Amino acid sequence: MESEQLFHRGYYRNSYNSITSASSDEELLDGAGVIMDFQTSEDDNLLDGDTVVGTHYTMTNGGSISSSTHLLDLLDEPIPGVGTYDDFHTIDWVRERCKDRERHRRINSKKKESAWEMTKSLYDAWSGWLVVTLTGLASGALAGLIDIAADWMTDLKEGICLSALWYNHEQCCWGSNETTFEERDKCPQWKTWAELIIGQAEGPGSYIMNYIMYIFWALSFAFLAVSLVKVFAPYACGSGIPEIKTILSGFIIRGYLGKWTLMIKTITLVLAVASGLSLGKEGPLVHVACCCGNIFSYLFPKYSTNEAKKREVLSAASAAGVSVAFGAPIGGVLFSLEEVSYYFPLKTLWRSFFAALVAAFVLRSINPFGNSRLVLFYVEYHTPWYLFELFPFILLGVFGGLWGAFFIRANIAWCRRRKSTTFGKYPVLEVIIVAAVTAVAAFPNPYTRLNTSELIKELFTDCGPLESSSLCDYRNDMNASKIVDDIPDRPAGLGVYSAIWQLCLALIFKIIMTVFTFGIKVPSGLFIPSMAIGAIAGRIVGIAVEQLAYYHHDWFIFKEWCEVGADCITPGLYAMVGAAACLGGVTRMTVSLVVIVFELTGGLEYIVPLMAAVMTSKWVGDAFGREGIYEAHIRLNGYPFLDAKEEFTHTTLAADVMRPRRSDPPLAVLTQDNMTVDDIENMINETSYNGFPVIMSKESQRLVGFALRRDLTIAIESARKKQEGTVGSSRVCFAQHTPSLPAESPRPLKLRSILDMSPFTVTDHTPMEIVVDIFRKLGLRQCLVTHNGTVLGIITKKNMVEHLEELTRRAEPLTPPWYHHKKRYPPSYGPDGKPRPRLHNVQLSPVTSEGEEARLLSSTAL
């Protein structure tokens, strides 16, 4: 039924003159299909339009007209309802840019009239910096609050500080004089639940009681989190980055960035992290920051009335979110540019940098971790890496790519099963089950019992003279008086071997639970679990290489640079490289990921190993599928998102995708001067299309323009109220000159002013590769397909997304993964020398036999 709605996703393209007259490349924007709505919602008002006057035509409440007149010659005031956007539809990028240009010109023309107008001009010019400043301040403050609360509630599962209930375990023992170096985490002020309930600090009874309380608090936090999400803000679940990417591409999800979502996401993120689930808070922090940016944008008319400008604020907010999540301001800007933003002009780059700076400054001022750093697992290494180590680094990259490919396929399969089975109807039960399994399996292993950020910190940390972790339990043969930062490589002790086995079990546990956790109905980030998996694998590899170099230092690969008694291998560096590789394999990030990890460590000399591992993980992952986890979830949720990084390499033509098809009803069109008001109203009532091509006559089928369903309805209703003599038999004229009518005829209704005189058109022979690029780069929602000037059909963004999905599903089982990387163009003539048919060069009907399958491949080959 949806495929029959030819124009259901189309709001007409603006005047071509408004594009060709753009002052810079930033005016040529990418858009998508949208349905315009007569009504607006007062709840959250996420992405609403307003009344603005266009550049080459008047924008009435955001509705575009292809001339500089009003909607009707008789109308002098804006028409309520025109130009607002409905939920789950897309904005008109070109129209929004035209609105902003006209606003800017109007302000510049008035600023010399008075001091007040000059003040308004300065306020408008500085409003962009003010809104990103407020966004950075709020993002940094909320991130600090989340970090402090999550640490306290995580430690609450193990015990409580009697001297100050609001202190976590580490803070509770800071002021104690009774701690020892070996047992620095034990102090009289901190009491475990076993000590409080049964009065035992050691023994089986104490272990069982702590085990029970650990599971109790984990289930309580998880239940409270999912209940708050379900009742108050369903949009607060998940990572939020797939939806942020879709919103930044122009899609409307009303309420997703609203005040209730911000409040509930902030609270439930703390609860979800404290519950011990295999998730992180870094991804949801991007969502929290974007909520702040969206809310503050309503304080400034420059952004509250313009959807394209508002998305510039959201791009800057996403940079601030990553800045406070990882303590990486520059990495946050690059993340916004590489991963989430759809439109990123130069001024947005500057404001994103400033927002990330402000957010990082606020978080540093709060100092939530007490280490004067922006993140918990900041480390510094002092040993250089050597050329031979590139080989294990690349192996870690291969592991990261394999992990990413496995995780994407497994998680998408589980999420699809959740959507299609009754299990998905009980989100609270699912969260409780996952939290129970996680708590039961995590408590016995000290590395899975740890908070994931604490685990990454321990894995990243190099073994020094003050480290008491079992990972640093080496047999020390050095002189006790020789305590320096660079301790030479030593043979591993029993504690190291025991830790390796525990890390192997933790690796298996994290891999399994992360697959089932990402996507449940609580805030759940993917950055930290992926980094933890890579850090575990990297630390194991690092210890193995370290012991290999110690026991076989006379091998030719170690002989030149690793002498006896030298500090050659840093296992923590391998953990860092493995973390970057696994995160890159899942998200397919490259540049921004390397910069983020570099800012985490502060080591400029380790960029080359990071680049090698991240690039390897991307290549390996791309061999199994070019989608990252966020793009896969966008496709799973059915969002109309055209990824600019994807290449369209199929050999279809515009005629293969356009509607109507041969089995569909004929194209619904209007004629320019021989239809009555009743005819148009009947067509509107009998169809659900969002617009209609206007042709010269039924005989010629020559294209005149494109009229929107909404504009037709509003124009007719307004004419009935304000123009005397408008009746059902009144002739509707889209032509420039009204045809001669009999004297007794009612007064004609002139609607040329609502007609888009320059709708974008392609011929039926246009390759879809070109059509896809046109949609991406010119901001189209639909284009008309013609043949020698005669209208044949229409292509909407919805048709294009469905066609791409169908071709992808059909090509995957028939071709190897690298088949789609080849650039191919449809030949004009077939093997027999005759012109190739327009509609059947690719068979879209189900393949029923091996012979039919072979015919399909041969028909698409060059």
Description:
With 862 residues, the chain is mainly alpha-helical. The protein has 30 helices and eleven strands. The strands form four sheets. Strands 3-5-6 form a three-stranded mixed β-sheet. It has a three-stranded mixed β-sheet with strand order 4-7-8. It has a three-stranded mixed β-sheet with strand order 9-10-11. Strand 9 (761-763), helix 28 and strand 10 form a beta-alpha-beta unit. Helix 6 (204-232) runs antiparallel to helix 8, helix 9 (282-297) packs antiparallel against helix 11 and helix 14 (390-420) packs across helix 23. It is elongated, with a radius of gyration of 31 Å. The model is unreliable at 1-81, 478-485 and 813-862 (pLDDT under 50).
